[in-house]
Automatic annotation (TrEMBL):
Skewed-composition ranges (Polar residues): 60-70
Family: Belongs to the MIX23 family.
One cellular component term from this protein's GO annotations in UniProt: mitochondrial intermembrane space
Chain intervals for the UniProt region annotation (Disordered): 48-72
Biased composition (Low complexity): 48-59
Name of protein: Caffeine-induced death protein Cid2
Length: 197
């Protein structure tokens, strides 16, 4: 069985502001759990009940039925163990990281290295004389975003990606696992969190 995603060892504002590291963490977590969900679920089913392996156990094939109909459903208890020990904890770790970094992005950032430079650009822009009749480009000014604003943009994108990935993963889990109730992944994760308390 796969292992759940481990939380970052150094969850600090610097971790969040290094958006490459933040994105890599989220991407690797999604790749190991969500992107390979079919492989992870297939690994839960014992491929052969004979020991040693008997080739006749795989000799019968019915190509007239779609493969999704011939797949053996994953037993209820095995599904529950996978969801509660791998999938939901991995989702929870990613949610915690995104929540923490969102709080960093919305907090004041006194250590912003570009703060002085941005303030100087804003002062120069306020002193500019704009006459668009003489120079139609004189009104252009593109203020630079602070690193907190850039982080907030990255987190908005990552939240959208997270919702898409979880919806897709949950659809596959519902299709393949016995005992998974009809509902959204949000309801399932909330139920898991409440049962954990």
């Amino acid at each position: 069985m796969s292992k759940p995603t481990a939380p970052p060892t150094n969850l600090t504002p610097q971790f969040c502001f290094n958006t490459r590291v933040l994105r890599d963490f989220l991407r690797l977590s999604r790749a190991s759990i969500d992107d390979s969900i079919s492989t992870n679920l297939n690994a839960l089913i014992t491929p052969s009940t004979t020991s040693p392996f008997d080739p006749t156990s795989t000799s019968i094939r019915n190509p007239s039925l779609p493969s999704s109909l011939t797949r053996a459903p994953i037993p209820r208890e095995t599904s529950r163990t996978f969801l509660h020990s791998v999938l939901f904890p991995s989702w929870n770790v990613r949610s915690d990281v995104i929540s923490y970094c969102t709080s960093v992005a919305t907090s004041p950032d006194p250590n912003d290295p570009d703060l002085i430079e941005r303030e100087a650009l804003n002062r120069r822009d306020a002193e500019r004389i704009v006459n668009e009749r003489l120079d139609p480009y004189s009104g252009r000014f593109f203020p630079r975003e602070s690193r907190a604003e850039m982080l907030a943009g990255v987190l908005r994108n990552e939240n959208a990606v997270e919702k898409i990935v979880r919806t897709r993963t949950w659809g596959i889990v519902q299709e393949r696992c016995e005992g998974v109730e009809e509902g959204t992944w949000e309801e399932a994760v909330n139920g898991w969190r409440e049962g954990k308390r």
